[in-house]
From TrEMBL:
Listed name of the protein: Sigma-70 family RNA polymerase sigma factor
Domain RNA polymerase sigma factor 70 region 4 type: 80-132
SUPFAM superfamilies named among the record's database cross-references: Sigma3 and sigma4 domains of RNA polymerase sigma factors (SSF88659)
UniProt GO molecular function: DNA binding; sigma factor activity
Sections of the chain in a coiled coil: none
BP-aspect Gene Ontology terms: DNA-templated transcription initiation
């Protein structure tokens, strides 16, 4: 058993209040104090006196960009145009472009899955992208 003064731990206590603690609990409190002191020392040494997490919205604005209704509409419109252009492609080109750009598969992996040469996949994707570009220019 170990005796500690609660006044040392809680600054709002004005008088001495002594309590008995188990050795394990006292050891955990001591370890917490050492970790906190080490953190304060690292903060001092690295001059890290600032933080984005001050609950004033800075970190929220940086991490989660809110888009305006106009931007949302433009993105939706461009996605619809992209989908319309992809739907006009032959099924093979559509499948390969979707696998490469949306599923993030390499051209070699697509070729292995379809059991064809990698050059055929590469040329099919290039032709499909050219067809999509022509379609989008007309729109």
């Amino acid at each position: 058993m170990k005796r500690i003064n609660l006044r040392d731990m809680y600054p709002f206590i004005k008088t001495d209040v002594w309590i008995d603690l188990d050795d394990e609990v006292a050891q955990e409190i001591r370890r917490f104090d050492l970790n906190e002191s080490a953190y304060k020392l690292r903060t001092y040494r690295h001059r890290a006196y600032y933080s984005l997490d001050r609950n004033d919205g800075i970190e929220q604005d940086v991490l989660f960009l809110s888009i305006s209704p106009e931007e949302y509409y433009e993105r939706k419109l461009s996605n619809e145009q992209l989908y319309a252009a992809m739907c006009r492609l032959p099924e093979k080109s559509f499948r390969r472009i979707y696998a490469h750009f949306f599923l993030d598969m390499s051209k070699v992996a697509i070729a292995q899955a379809e059991q064809v040469d990698e050059r055929a996949v590469r040329k099919s994707i290039e032709r499909g992208l050219k067809q999509m570009a022509q379609f989008l220019k007309k729109m």
